[in-house]
Every structure is written in structure tokens, then in C-alpha cells.
Design brief:
37% helix, 14 helices, Rossmann fold, 7-stranded parallel sheet, 2 domains, alpha/beta, 13 strands
């Protein structure tokens, strides 16, 4: 759906009004196009004293073909900043963050990226180190709200032993693929990882099979298209009323279709049977299908509460359990749950939806360590205000509030959620599990 306000602010009249009235100024975000370099510019790389990731960061950025510099010349502009803060072990040591960033922030281009890299606070080993490392989140979340001009900031925690597994995450966060992701924290761990994940920039999912539920339109279709772009064979699933749309869209991707209701008692078995018969298993499972039935709790009908929970979280859990029981999710595979900022911050009139989407997070975080020994990851993506057909039904004032109440002052696009799913699905992200990343432009709601 067109954002007419965004179109207006980029006219001469709109620029005048924004400047003089202090109105929101949503920038034009840069997004990735197939064949583009991941980063269209130079990245400044710095480190606090005694930091330990210098070699790993250099190797990862080199593998990504990202030009880097260790010093910003007078008047030079850079597309991103990566700061290794793993050496910080006292509260006073946080001065190093300010001393590095303040002089160079004005050297960022539009739609630039800032990534702070640290050690998980729970692995710090001392109070001072835990303080300094946890403080990085406060820096990146605040910086994401300060930068403007389409730029973003994130924190990445790298567990000991995961140093060689950071390329995929750096590639995502430094590139236009993360256009609508800001103020987020990503944890790269080691559970279940015996070798450094293999990372490829182009077509990393070649030879992989991806199941996407709710794939006929909206977010699900964007996910299917993006996974196909990255080389996967896509099996799209949707309900019978949308079968014609599903078959048309999957045919355009050279993909396949499963038409069924995921809440049917035998749905897990039927899905497992199809994947087993046609592909011998599956590599990527994206549980995108979902519904809303909005009412305040005092007016909620039991059937509407039950249906939302059943589709949004119970069915994904049952389907996944069946696929795992039959050992159809291959080693190196990944499972994706679709949560929502409503599941993190709550939302007026959406207690059923928020419960289901918070449940997705609980499911992901409980299952992640249990899947690690099998070399399987599970993560969640939590969309915010995304410009889908559903937006058209929202009253104008609420729609505009949803668009403007984030650091980027605009709604996201389905491709923004799809790119996050593709990053999780990339074999190079095999050390990323149990994460919940919001795709919300750093919404003012929630953390």
C-alpha cells in the first residue's frame, strides 16, 4: 500500500513543512537487489583495547567482499561501522565506545549501518565485564533512534568458540537486507556446531528444500520468493480457498504446493508424508500461516481465542514435532517461527493474538537447545507494522500512527521480513539459534 505521507515529504513543499513543523521525516530506505554487492561502500572497523575478534572480523568482511578501513580521513564517508567491544571489562571502559564513535558518526552515508560486537554478558566472568558488555545494548538501541537518514544500529554477541561463524550475520546486518531492522540484539552461539558454518553470498540455499506455510500472498509469498532467489526449492502450503493463488505463485517459482488446513488433526502427518515422498526430508521450515480475531478480552468469544492460538502456535508446534519425530528435518536445517511485536509488547484488543505470538517465542527458546545436538536451529522473526493488504482495513489515524511510531518513521515491506527469514535459513547462520529479531523499524513499542 502506498505511503502518501512519505511521498509528500520528499517534495519541495513537504521538505519545507518537515523542517519548519518538526514533522516525521521517513527516508527512502535502500533495499537489496539480486546481483548487488552486499555493501555498497566502505566499512570502518575499530576495536577497544584487548578486544579479541579483530582477525575473525577481518576474515568475515573479506569473505563478504566488503571494503574496510581502520581510519576515517577528513571528509571521507563510510557505509558502516563495526566496533569490536569484546575487550571492555569495566564500566569506566565504556568511555572507549564514546571516544571511537562520536568523531566518526558524522561520516556515515545515508542508510548506513553500525554494528557493535561483544561477548554475551552471561559469559562475562566478572561484574565489570558483564556491565560493560550488557551496556552495548543501551548504546545500539539509543543510537538507532539518533542516526536518522535510514541508518540503523545493532549489537551482536559472539560466544567463545563462535568467532568463525559471524560472516552471515555481519553480511545481513551491514547490508540493505536489514533495511527495516534496527536496535536489535543477535546472539551467535556454539551449541551443536562442530565446524565453522559455510557461508556463500550468492544462492546459499542451492539444493535445499524449504516449506513455507501461508505462502499464497503477503509475508508468506515474499518469504517463498526470497528463499527461491537464494536457491531453494520451495514447497508452498495454504488453505483450499487460496489454492488457485498458491498454485499460480508457486508455479512462477518452479515450486510445489500442499493444500490443506494446518489445524486438521492429520495435517502434521500429511505434510511429513509429502516431504518424505517427494524430497526425502526438508531443510527450511517457515511457520508463517497466521490469523487475527481482534476483540478486547472482555468481549472475546472462546472460539476466536481458540482459533488464533490453534493456527498461530499450536499447529506449528505439532507439525514441527512430527517432522522431528520422523527425522525429516535434515542436519543443518532450520525452523522459523513468526512472532510479532504484539507478542513482545502486547496490543489493545489483541490478547489472543499476543498470547499466540508470545507463545511462539517461548516455543523457539525452549526447543533451541534441544535441537542443537542434531545440528538444527530454530529462531523467530517478530514483524512490526508491515505494508500488506491487511493495512488497508486499518483506520487512517491508527494506520498513520503505526507507520510513524518507529525510528525509521515508516512501515516496513514484506521483503524486509523475508530477508530476515533468508538470513536465518542461510547455512552460514548455523550458529544462530534461539534468537528473536524484530523487523519493526525499531518500534517505540516494546524492547
Amino acid at each position: 500500500m502506498s505511503d502518501r505521507y512519505q511521498d509528500l515529504v520528499h517534495t519541495s513543499v513537504g521538505k519545507f513543512l518537515v523542517k519548519n513543523l518538526g514533522l516525521p521525516n521517513p527516508p527512502r530506505l535502500e533495499r537489496f537487489n539480486a546481483g548487488d554487492p552486499l555493501v555498497s561502500g566502505t566499512v570502518l572497523v575499530g576495536a577497544a583495547p584487548a578486544s579479541t575478534l579483530g582477525t575473525a572480523l577481518g576474515d568475515a568482511l573479506s569473505a563478504l567482499s566488503v571494503p574496510t578501513t581502520a581510519r576515517l580521513a577528513d571528509g571521507e564517508k563510510v557505509k558502516g561501522i563495526v566496533f569490536d567491544a569484546t575487550g571492555l571489562d569495566t564500566a569506566a571502559g565504556l568511555d572507549r565506545v564514546q571516544e571511537f564513535l562520536t568523531p566518526v558518526l558524522r561520516g556515515l552515508t545515508r542508510c548506513a549501518r553500525v554494528v557493535l560486537v561483544g561477548t554475551p554478558p552471561e559469559q562475562a566472568g566478572s561484574a565489570g565485564r558483564a556491565i560493560a558488555q550488557r551496556a552495548l545494548e543501551g548504546v545500539s538501541r539509543s543510537l538507532g533512534k539518533e542516526l536518522g537518514n535510514g541508518s540503523t544500529a545493532q549489537t551482536v554477541y559472539v560466544s567463545g568458540g563462535a568467532e568463525d561463524a559471524i560472516a552471515s550475520t555481519l553480511g545481513f546486518l551491514l547490508s540493505p537486507k536489514s533495511a527495516y531492522v534496527s536496535g536489535q540484539v543477535v546472539r551467535i552461539g556454539t551449541a551443536g556446531i562442530t565446524d565453522a558454518p559455510t557461508f556463500e553470498v550468492a544462492a546459499p540455499l542451492t539444493g535445499k528444500v524449504a516449506l513455507v506455510t501461508g505462502a499464497s500472498r503477503g509475508l508468506g509469498l515474499a518469504m517463498a520468493q526470497t528463499l527461491h532467489r537464494d536457491g531453494a526449492t520451495v514447497v508452498g502450503l495454504d488453505v483450499a480457498p487460496l489454492a488457485e493463488d498458491l498454485q499460480r505463485e508457486m508455479a512462477s517459482l518452479g515450486g510445489e504446493t500442499i493444500v490443506l488446513d494446518i489445524t486438521a488433526p492429520d495435517a502434521p502427518q500429511r505434510i511429513a508424508a509429502y516431504l518424505s515422498e517427494h524430497h526425502g526430508g526438508v531443510d527450511v521450515v517457515v511457520h508463517n500461516a497466521g490469523i487475527t480475531r481482534d476483540k478486547r478480552l472482555r468481549n472475546m468469544k472462546t472460539e476466536n481465542w481458540h482459533k488464533v492460538v490453534e493456527i498461530n502456535v499450536d499447529a506449528p508446534q505439532r507439525i514441527t514435532a512430527e517432522l522431528l519425530d520422523q527425522k525429516l528435518v535434515r542436519t543443518g536445517g532450520t525452523i522459523l517461527g513468526v512472532s510479532s511485536i504484539a507478542g513482545i509488547a502486547g496490543n489493545n484488543g489483541q490478547t489472543n493474538y499476543a498470547a499466540s505470538k508470545a507463545g511462539v517465542i517461548g516455543w523457539v527458546q525452549e526447543l533451541a537447545p534441544r535441537l542443537a545436538p542434531a545440528g538444527i536451529t530454530i529462531n523467530a522473526v517478530a514483524p512490526g507494522f508491515i505494508e500488506t493488504d491487511m493495512v488497508k482495513t486499518i483506520p487512517l489515524t491508527i494506520r498513520e500512527a503505526g507507520r510513524r511510531m518507529n525510528s525509521l518513521s515508516q512501515g516496513g515491506l514484506p521483503i524486509d521480513v523475508a530477508e530476515t527469514v533468508a538470513w536465518y535459513a542461510n547455512p552460514g547462520s548455523a550458529a544462530v539459534s534461539g534468537n528473536v529479531v524484530r523487523v519493526c523499524g525499531q518500534s517505540l513499542l516494546g524492547a
